[in-house]
Amino acid sequence: MKEVYIDRGITQSRIAVFEDNKIKDLYVENYDNINITGNIYIGRVENIVPSLGAAFVNIGIGKNGILHIKEMENADKIKCNQEVIVQVIREDTKDKGPKLTQKISIPGKFMVLLVGSDYIGISKKIIENEDRKKLKEKAKRVYVDNYGFILRTEAQFVQEDDILKEYLFLISLWEKNINKAVYIKPPRLLFDVRDFFGFAIREYIKGDVEKIYVNRKNDVEMIQNMISQHLHKKCEVISDEKIFIKASAIEKQITEILERKKLLPSGGNIIVDKTEALTVIDVNSGSIKTKDCKKQYILNTNIEACKVISEAIRLGNISGIIIIDFIDMTDEQERQIIIETLTENLSNDKVKIKIYGFTQLGLLEMARAKKGKSLYELILKQNSINTYTTAYVLKLIENQCLKVLTHYKKSRIPIKINADILSEVKSRFSYFISDMKDIYGIEIHFNPSETTEYFEVIKKKVEE
């Protein structure tokens, strides 16, 4: 049974997909460090560097985005101060701005609209030739000139009319934004593809989801209405005390993902080390009791590691170059088993992955495309492996206060909080206290402390 928990927070929001009470997918966003991949901007060309074949475009986020000139419309006529409509296809990094494109795509639940294209495609995840053929026939019947599209996996479970309805809606949405662009002075966000609820329903509420839990009671009706437009089956939307169980499961999962050392069932472990250039994962064995089964034990431990590694990569949203040092295997057939096992475990990943195989040193090389920020960036402060971001700390406070309100019926809650964190709350998250009162009716009273690591909700002294 699949369930989804949508936790809309004040400083941080999460989406978790539960299957048989285990988290299979996790999405986190901070409102002070939000993912912008997919967002569409009207920008201004600030600089052109022919030797790099790139234009640097101001989209209003601080760092100029990078747009390859060869991808631009009328590339030979590009000039500084020119207005351009661009879409972010890769997040910015410490040294580089976001990567941009003028090949605009708008995601829906059943398709991805390709603006200015005549391409019609089918998701590669739909494997059966007969299914692909039927969808291709449907696609040709609904196609409109200058608006190509790629049908997503959910398209195989709906009628042609549903595909057409969404197709025309996405075209209309884009044309409204184009008309709006005439009156907007760059740089400015033109279209927010990552609207939280729209993103949650589009990417995570599939036909096999039976229940949706939400943390805010007043969001239930809105989500029900949004879902009714996309799903044919009834999907129960709930906001009750079970949300605390779901929230606790998410916190536990986040803690486990961020742990450097992860245990394997056999007694072995993996060590995950992230650097700016790449991620290195080391697989270690437990104690081997007999030499006779050493070879089989090593293979089994490496197979176990494939599952744990794939979860760490997917749930932690680790991207870029990944090097895995499995326990030494000299048999080429065994190495192939590991490649196939890892490939299978990563098959449900939404992000593009390439496994290159083993090097001469016996290290497995792979790469995962960057899509949004990693969990490490959202939960831990930069250049720290054990200090939480203030956005995450405030989310923990929000959830604990909501639990106190529900279980103790208390709405005035004093909280001891680290003095440095409180200083950052006042400078960057000054809205948090007022939002807690407006949204939940909870009055927070922060008391600075030099000895408290993060915070402490004082339950016993709570008074109305």
Automatic annotation (TrEMBL):
Keyword Hydrolase among record annotations: yes
Pfam families for this protein: RNase_E_G, S1
Annotated PROSITE patterns: S1 (PS50126)
Keywords, sorted A to Z: Hydrolase, Magnesium, Metal-binding, RNA-binding
Residue ranges annotated for the S1 motif domain, each copy included: 38-103
GO biological process: rRNA processing
GO cellular component term of the entry, any: cytoplasm
UniProt cross-references to SMART domains, sorted A to Z: S1 (SM00316)
InterPro entries tied to this protein: NA-bd_OB-fold, RNA-bd_AU-1/RNase_E/G, RNase_E/G, S1_domain
Necessary cofactors: Mg(2+)
Classification via Gene3D superfamilies: Nucleic acid-binding proteins
A single GO molecular function term of this UniProt record: hydrolase activity
Domain of life: Bacteria
Name assigned to this protein: RNAse G
Source organism (scientific name): Caloramator quimbayensis
